[in-house]
């Protein structure tokens, strides 16, 4: 399934699978002795695909929760406004929380979310992102579990969209500029 809108494949299905297994093993090791529930919080919609792969690579019990958050809409640059369309179902006070994202780009979304969730007094809060574009950062974000750093190119696939398209590509690729310019 190679879309003609894709200029170049950045990470193949196999490369993604291997890195997700490593991240899952690292998380399982780090929380091995944790007595409290570990909440994996997926930030929809982008994190949907990575989340379901990641949790199956973590060999210990975890609870799921989700938020629906949007700031890009149909554009290739952030609106700067983080809209919470669905909040968590469960209180996280005293719990271990891992926020799971597909990508941290300007950092606006994650900076906002981490501040907001810290205010609910979890026992700990860590960030897991499959991709990070450090060159685009506007708001500071410390990433505890990172799949790969990527250059400043607009990526799609493996959950990442442009105007809601391409999320179901099994690989990650660079979107041709002519599609969004
Ligand atoms: O670091 P930032 O510049 O804030 O960008 C990262 C955010 O942008 C994308 O979400 P988007 O708003 O596109 O919603 P989506 O997950 O539904 O695609 C992505 O899933 C992150 O949540
Ligand atoms: Mg998006």
What features would you describe in this structure?
Residues 15-162 form the Phosphoribosyltransferase domain. By secondary structure, the protein is of the alpha/beta class. It has helices spanning 13-30, 48-56, 108-118, 177-180; strands at 6-11, 38-44, 63-70, 83-86, 96-104, 124-132, 145-149, 155-156, 172-175. The protein has a six-stranded mixed β-sheet, with helices on both faces. Strand 5, helix 3 (108-118) and strand 6 (124-132) form a beta-alpha-beta unit. Helix 1 crosses helix 2 (48-56). The protein starts with 5 loop residues before the first strand and ends with a helix. The model has no long low-confidence stretch (mean pLDDT 96). The structure holds 1-O-pyrophosphono-5-O-phosphono-alpha-D-ribofuranose and magnesium ion (MG). The site of 1-O-pyrophosphono-5-O-phosphono-alpha-D-ribofuranose has 19 residues, from strand 3, strand 5 and helix 3.
List the helices and strands and how they pair.
Layout: E1 6-11, H1 13-30, E2 38-44, H2 48-56, E3 63-70, E4 83-86, E5 96-104, H3 108-118, E6 124-132, E7 145-149, E8 155-156, E9 172-175, H4 177-180
Parallel strand pairs: 2-3, 2-5, 5-6, 6-7
Antiparallel strand pairs: 1-9, 3-4, 8-9
Helix pairs in contact: 1-2
The structure holds 1-O-pyrophosphono-5-O-phosphono-alpha-D-ribofuranose (PRP) and magnesium ion.
Residues 46, 72, 161 line the site of magnesium ion.
Family: Belongs to the purine/pyrimidine phosphoribosyltransferase family.
EC number: 2.4.2.8
Domain Phosphoribosyltransferase: 15-162
């Amino acid at each position: 399934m190679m879309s003609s809108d894709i200029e170049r494949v950045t990470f193949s299905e196999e490369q993604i699978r291997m890195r997700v297994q490593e991240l899952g093993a690292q998380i399982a090791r780090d929380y091995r002795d944790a007595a409290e529930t570990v909440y994996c919080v997926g930030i929809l919609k982008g994190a949907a695909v990575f989340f379901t792969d990641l949790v199956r690579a973590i060999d210990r019990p975890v609870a799921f929760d989700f938020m629906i958050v949007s700031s890009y809409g149909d554009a290739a640059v952030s609106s700067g406004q983080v809209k919470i369309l669905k909040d968590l179902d469960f209180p996280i006070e005293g719990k271990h929380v891992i926020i799971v994202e597909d990508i941290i780009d300007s950092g606006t979304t994650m900076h906002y979310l981490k501040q907001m969730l810290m205010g609910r007094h979890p026992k700990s809060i860590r960030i897991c992102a499959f991709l990070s574009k450090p060159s685009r950062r506007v708001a500071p974000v410390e990433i505890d579990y990172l799949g790969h750093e990527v250059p400043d190119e607009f990526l799609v696939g493996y959950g990442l969209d442009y105007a809601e398209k391409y999320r179901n590509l099994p690989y990650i690729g660079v979107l041709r500029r002519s599609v969004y310019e």
